[in-house]
Design a protein that fits this description.
single chain; 237 residues; mainly alpha; Rhopdopsin 7-helix transmembrane proteins; 2 strands
Length: 237
């Protein structure tokens, strides 16, 4: 652009656009660095899970590391390519649908793996015998498969509403079935992605902490009133 032909009223607009572009690129680079650090953290998490005793939590931790790495790789790839003003989802409609669908579904699966681990921890402390009987790699695999299938099923609306606009940009086609899209977006954002995981996580942590405190109190009472404390001192000589 030739700045000699730009009027004084257009200069602030150009400065704002330049500042916006610089800030956006900085955020993209920061996001890419965070994605790389996330991949490293997931690798360490997977190694740690291998060192833990065999349990549902250890197996679910491995699945969490794998699926979070898949989501982190997808996000990192998106961020670094958009930094160079290119996005793979803009190449074709099929790629647009699959890429957006996979990105949302993998992110949702990551969140629900954390929910599954929290529920498993509550079951372990509230029903230890039941948890011990059903703690195996097969049970964890069934739980992991259920989480992935449910996450992709709940994200199917993203695949339906994904479309290319007149400029060849991948996005959501809100004009088609606008009411259905509005309801789906509201339910998805406020219930599926936030409401249900947040409620379950908070409830599970409250139950877990409360159970630990009750167990600690019971242990303290048993210690206070143990028979050894009432043994005459001359027997201990």
């Amino acid at each position: 652009m030739n700045l000699t032909n730009v009027t004084t009223t257009e200069v602030p607009v150009l400065l704002k656009l330049t500042q916006w572009t610089t800030g956006t690129n900085a955020m993209r680079l920061s996001g890419f660095v965070v994605s790389v650090l996330g991949l490293v953290g997931n690798f360490l998490c997977y190694i740690t899970a291998n060192e833990l005793p065999a349990s549902n939590s250890a197996f679910l931790m491995k699945h969490l590391a794998v699926w979070d790495s898949i989501g982190g790789f997808t996000d990192g790839f998106t961020i670094i390519t958009t930094y160079f003003n290119w996005w793979i989802a803009n190449t074709h409609l099929v790629v647009c649908i699959l890429f957006r669908f996979h990105t949302i579904a993998s992110s949702l699966a990551t969140g629900y793996f954390v929910v599954a681990m929290s529920v498993d921890r509550v079951v372990a402390i509230k029903f230890p015998f039941l948890h011990r009987s059903y703690s195996s790699s097969r049970v964890a695999a069934v739980i992991a498969a259920t989480v992935v299938i449910v996450s992709y099923a709940l994200s199917s609306g993203v695949a339906y509403f994904s479309d290319m606009d007149e400029n060849g940009q991948c996005g959501l086609n809100r004009k088609s079935m606008y009411l259905v899209h509005t309801v789906y977006a509201f339910v998805g954002h406020y219930f599926v992605f936030f409401g249900v995981p947040f409620t379950v996580l908070v409830s599970a942590n409250i139950i877990f902490v409360h159970s630990l405190r009750n167990r600690k109190k019971a242990t303290h009472i048993k210690t206070e009133f143990s028979p050894e404390k009432f043994v005459p001192q001359w027997n201990l000589i």
